[in-house]
Amino acid sequence: MSTTRLLDLWAPPPGYRLASVIATTYQLQADFIEEDLLPVALGLRQSPARGREFRIELEKTLQDAEITVYLHPDGYTPGLRRSPRVDLIPVPESRLRKLHAKVSLLLFVPEQGDEPAARIVRLVTGSANLTASGYRHNIELAVAMDDAPGAAPVVVTAVRDAAEWLHRILPPDTEQARSQHRAMQAVFAARTVSADRTEMVFVGLPRQGGLMQALSGLDLGKVHTLTAASPFWPGGEDASDIASGVLQSCGGVPDLVRLIGPWHAVEGRLYPEMPPALLKSLQALGVEQLEVSHSVPDFGCAPESTTPADAEGEYDDIGTDTTAAFAAWRPLHAKALLIEGSKASVLAMGSFNFTRRGLGLHERAANTEAGMIWHVPAKSSARLRQALGFSGPWRKVDGALDELVIAPGPMEGENGQQWPAFIRSIRASRDVLILEGDGAAWPAELKVSMRDIRSRLLQMDRNFDPWVIARPPAGEDVRAELALVAGWMEEEGQQALSRYPALPDLEVLLEWDEQRTVLPVVFIDKHEFPVVERTAREDERMLLDWFLGLRPADEADADGYGHGFDPETIDQVTDAGERAGILSYLIRDFVHALPGIRAHLEDGASTETGLRTALLGPRSPAKLADEILDARMKPAKGRPGKTDVATTFQLIELHKLVNSAPLPELPDGVTEQLRGQCLARIDRALVTIIDQFKQPLEPVLGQYVASRGKRRHATA
Fold first, then answer.
1. Which of 245, 518, 649, 660 has the greatest number of C-beta atoms within 10 Å?
2. Domains observed in the chain
């Protein structure tokens, strides 16, 4: 046990990089995910303070990383910036019992020589939400363990049990999530291990009997000490049900029961926060030795640096106010249950609070929780106690309870981000916002609003024209595809902004029956999103320049708006290809660009999302084929026309290259499926050009066209 910085649990092992994250959380801060957590996990070099440079590096890295986070809708905190490549998926209680588990599965791939058997799947689980308070400020308990080559079977088993549990409770319903689960299963299949749950086991709720049932089957001998730490406790005047449930897991009444609660300061003195009713219930059930403690406020904190006194001593006393120091102390959010017996001891650590729903005592009212249970011989109990090192001095409960503890106040209610029961999903493509829902529960009218992020170029905040969706007749299901219209540009004389492509925002505001909520949007077809938005389409000339390496990686430097995409005006884009108007230069540059295209495919992906982007995205062979055809069918003004023969040559050579390029082998034949989609795009363009020729084709041309299935090409 240590006070390791929780963010470091997401750092890749040496020689590896992050390819995938599937995570669950109760609370989530969108800005924290992208500006704190992912930079560590992805090994980004740019600081978020660098603004545009950071966003470009993040977006480029996310082109070959798959991030899916499931969260409870009540815990969503919108952010100023979000990437459409990160899926934030609210899970309402109509789909799953209250999602309170904190489980993250991270897939790391080798930087060199990637094979499924060499990949690492890391499990990170504990009490911390994906928020700044969870990972930076609170006292939390978390553990990370790697299913890596040569890892102990007990560790491997825990990681794979967590993956199976996550797949079972949240069956993947997005293309990205399905890809992520396939990739993890490929790793597990490449390294078969016999299951071992003797010393450590992953446990997920809800399950019959809850956490208590998972603990009660272990042979601990005579239990002498039960210690519980929790930031939240059962409510009500009678806590006998939870007290008896916990004692039953011990096989009887322990000699000593210890409870650790959050610290609470009253007139400079610290008290534990916990309900007197729980203490009374434990005493009524025969617990004779009962002790309480508060968490240590500065546990795990580095000593505060003090400002050196000036020569005159005028400012010596600044910063010594104890009231201000209290405000900086760390709140308790760790949850743990330690049972020590004569034969063995167990420690349960995870997301389960010491509440009825958290421990799963009443199955129908149980939360979705998760954590780890360690089971060690009695002589090793000391190492489990280290996990509770944040406890302060113990006080025996032998007098008036109100002098020993502070009763908790009412638990905070929901934060206003509730998921409407009538909404099933909110997704978006490049052009439209897509809502699906239950027509039988649909309100009379639902108003939908979304910010037009282009307005930020003018330091303004404007929305697309709002949509109103009325209740459908006879309770029919709702599927609405809402086109993006920005009437405000014409009304306010900002027509110039219409040069920039419309792009859905990353949150949507819903209003109905005097209620309102802000919810995240899940983007589909992520491979179509460029890293940087431009007013000018990347045509054939610009794509060839890019594959030739004639455009700088970070493009032109320009101020952009607060979004994952920063637009550039056409004047800011340097067209390195405008060197001459001679057609032969274009064909020559195409041939010279073929090695760059091959290298882009070979080095561009280790995930399904990354390979899809490399083959079908905005800078891909499929996109280049579209632009080659456009350049022939719709030549630009001032540019020489391209012949059918030249166009055919380009498309056939591109087809051969894609057909022969070695690509990473993804599970379930996905690699060849994506290669086939790219080849089909090239074939469609080629058929269009061949139709321009006089039929039948001349013998030499016919033989060349027929050769496209062969793997030799101009660069061979």
1. 245
2. 6-191 (3.30.870), 204-300+328-403 (3.30.870.10), 423-524 (2.60.40), 528-709 (no CATH)
